[in-house]
Design brief:
It is built from 12 helices and 23 strands. The longest helix has 21 residues, at 245-265. Helix 1 runs parallel beside helix 10 (299-305). Among the domains are: 2-97, Rossmann fold (3-Layer(aba) Sandwich), CATH 3.40.50; 123-191, ATP-grasp fold, A domain (Dna Ligase, domain 1). The chain is globular. With 428 residues, it is an alpha+beta fold. The chain binds adenosine monophosphate and glycine. Adenosine monophosphate binds at residues 122, 147, 156, 159, 161, 191, 193-194, 198, 220, 277, 288-289.
């Protein structure tokens, strides 16, 4: 079968690498892809939201499955676009419907879904210009720190955690009345702060059956010891020590099962990944957020640990055999360290020449491109270096050796990925 993968990040490079190993694959195309994905298929220059362009390409190239990497085309309804056109509806889209994508596209929708389905999450209320005074009153009922969330997609920047009431009131005003996050943020979810340790669980489902994939922890801040601005993610580790069988069982029973049942009850078409951001509060899981896709850079540690054929898993979801699909997972630790451009997540320069070991096993390109035959930087996050080994320490050593083997001007990366987890594994 011919497959079209949509996206251009490290997540898509890791997916392309795994899909390219499938026995079911004839040819893989990646739109638009990056300097690394081209080693596992053919990059095609079509934008992720150009649904007409994607449809024409699929028809011309006998594509029978589209795998959607990022959330934006899902929130924009790529699944519905293909499903509702009789010339296209034979093409399977791995990714939820527009309605399902609201689990990520609208924080308010996600919170309502959790409440309706008894899924543990922080207490919340939603506000907009109409009821800003009630928002101020609700804030008074909470204790610091205060959590304010832009309702819509805000490229990972729409969540504010504020230590004082004064800051919270000020930011609320900026979001609702001065469009701090554009239209994505004029509706604001205010919620209770959950103290605990975070991790992410990943589920693959066709809306009826589900498969639980390896969990991961990511490192969101730009600076060592979780300091500085939020980024898309600076590194990741899988497995996560406190995600023992007892905890994972609670996640399955209290969160995953009710989520799938909720999709059915609300008649939401969903054939794709569910990324569940969790807080472990005294050994009890609470949902912080849903994403309707895999994480980046979590995919760069999750895909290397999945040893079964992922394309066969996607096919099983489309022909109702997912229940019988056997997922095999490598017991080794996987760690990834993201190399970024100087200045990221704020302004940065692109176009720096990249040299060194850029095609090795576990080297996943994020923001790279080929220009005049040279590999250059083409984004804030440039390359993720994944290591795998029987211990966390050994995996990290391989990741950092790989980081050292790649050069470009002003390369920056966090030096402390996984350090907070050291020691936590010993008790397991
Ligand atoms: P999100 O974009 O929803 O993942 O939020 C970004 C980050 O804010 C999360 O990864 C958490 O670290 C933090 N966060 C979000 N909501 C809460 C909450 N209710 N309590 C504590 N931390 C939170
Ligand atoms: N690394 C977090 C995300 O992909 O949303």
């Amino acid at each position: 079968m011919n497959v079209l993968l949509i996206g251009s990040g490290g997540r898509e490079h890791a997916l392309a690498w795994r899909i390219s190993q499938s026995k079911l694959l004839t040819k893989l195309f990646i739109a638009p892809g990056n300097g690394g994905t081209r080693n596992h298929g053919e990059n095609v220059n079509i934008g992720i939201n150009d649904f007409n362009g994607i449809a024409n390409f699929c028809l011309q190239n006998n594509i029978t499955m589209i795998v959607v990497g990022p959330e934006e085309p899902l929130v924009n309804g790529i699944w519905d676009y293909f499903r509702n056109n009789e010339k296209l509806n034979h093409i399977a889209v791995i990714g939820p419907s527009r309605e399902g994508a609201q689990l990520e596209g609208s924080k308010h929708f996600a919170k309502e879904f959790m409440i309706n389905n008894n899924i543990p999450t922080a207490r919340f209320k939603t506000f907009d210009t109409q009821n800003i005074d009630s928002a101020k009153e609700f804030l008074q009922t909470l204790q610091a720190p205060f959590v304010l969330k832009a309702d819509g997609l805000a490229a990972g920047k729409g969540v504010l955690i504020l230590d004082s009431m004064e800051e919270a009131l000020n930011e609320l005003q900026l979001m609702i009345q001065q469009n701090k996050f554009g239209n994505a943020g004029t509706t604001v979810v205010i919620e209770e702060f959950l103290p605990g340790i975070e991790l992410s669980m990943f589920v693959f489902t066709n809306g009826v059956d589900y498969i639980i994939l390896p969990e991961a922890k990511d490192y969101k801040r730009i600076g060592d010891n979780d300091t500085g601005l939020n980024t898309g993610g600076m590194g990741a580790v899988s497995p996560v020590p406190f995600a023992n069988d007892e905890f994972k069982n609670k996640v399955e029973q209290q969160i995953i099962v009710p989520t799938i049942k909720g999709l059915q009850k609300e008649k939401i078409n969903y054939c794709g990944f569910v990324f569940i951001g969790l807080m472990n509060v005294k050994d009890n899981p609470y949902v912080i957020e849903y994403n309707v896709r895999m994480g980046d850079p979590e995919t760069e540690v999750v895909m290397p640990r999945i040893t079964s054929d992922v394309l066969a898993m996607f096919v099983a979801a489309t022909n109702n055999t997912l229940k019988k699909f056997e997922l095999t997972i490598d017991a080794n630790y996987a760690t990834t360290v993201m190399m970024v451009s100087q200045g990221y997540p704020e302004d940065y320069e692109k176009g720096k020449l990249i040299t060194g070991n850029t095609t090795g096993e576990g080297i996943f390109h994020a923001g790279t491109a080929i220009k005049e035959g040279n590999l250059i930087t083409n984004g804030g996050r440039v390359i993720a270096a994944t290591g795998m080994a029987p211990t966390l320490q050994a995996a990290l050593k391989l990741s950092y050796e790989a980081v050292d083997s790649i050069q470009y001007e002003n390369k920056y990366y966090r030096k402390d990925i996984g350090q907070d987890l050291m020691g936590l594994f010993i008790s397991q």
